[in-house]
Design a protein that fits this description.
Layout lengths: L6 H29 L2 H7 L1 H29 L1
Amino acid sequence: MSPSRTPEQIRASLEIRRHELSSSIELLRDDVAELSDWRAQIRRNQKAVAIAVGVTGFVLAGGIGALTGALRRRR
């Protein structure tokens, strides 16, 4: 039985796959670096961040106000 591919063909195929894998890893590194840059994410989404901060502040202030109100009623 003869092999369907020669050793040279297998080596060439492996080299192509190695190159493709290397390129994919570089692209993945770039994507991870971009996504993990939280400062850039905030700059890109300033409006959404401002709304989230405002809502969080409102909820926390309301929560603190409700807690102090409940504590005053107990006394």
